[in-house]
């Protein structure tokens, strides 16, 4: 028996019998909206498994769920009895089902807050000012925003702001299977990319399990991976997030070419070859490696020497090799 189940039994409280998520979707005539990348997960065994992947949820913890929809994962979270549950849902059509869950959970004395807002603009510090509670971020993310949201949260993590004012805030999130594999891909791996490096600079991501596409309504064209992302107690760099992101983005802009090609686009054309060669030597990185072969440490060494170069040449920070003044006339 889990600790959460034991607490429910000891207190004599449990969620009352309720219609299934499938029944609620039918009752309220809820249909997934393609423009919002919505896919409903109806199987409670799978929603329980997602929440279990988040690890221990204590009675003093806070859980923020992104995009609860009709409330499938929400039910599984309530069974773990956190002290507070915050739902952030962009689509107000789910108001009645979520309000029903809130009312049914009232005997459990869980603080239950529902915000109809875009998670990309949601102000964590305004709605969660107290940092005494450990935060779990859980969600079946819309595919259309999943990568952008993750990068935003990495930037918050690097700055110790938002949901990451504490170092123990963990994320348990769903992604398209290919994206989930990219987040966790090691150096040299087939799926290694910019997202892999950015994920592994500040966190330790783990692909927990895969959910077949047929488990969702409507069925997506791909399977779905559940990833737990745990912040590192000691990040691998103290460099500014946006500098690291810029360097890694340029490196991977030419993924199948030598890594010096993409890295070189950080610098003006007139002295690009000379500067690129010098910085690779200073970073002690082989410039004929492909970007996907680079380790996190090698990428960070390249970011470090780029940062040092900017001290002597601050104008380079604004250089855009794709800008109109830099277009070569053939």
Automatic annotation (TrEMBL):
Keywords: Methyltransferase, Mitochondrion, RNA-binding, rRNA processing, S-adenosyl-L-methionine, Transcription, Transcription regulation, Transferase, Transit peptide. Gene3D superfamilies: Ribosomal RNA adenine dimethylase-like, domain 2 (1.10.8.100), Vaccinia Virus protein VP39 (3.40.50.150). The keyword Transit peptide applies. It is found in: Mitochondrion. One of its GO terms (cellular component) is mitochondrial matrix. Its EC number is 2.1.1.-. This is rRNA adenine N(6)-methyltransferase. It comes from Drosophila rhopaloa. The gene is LOC108053918.
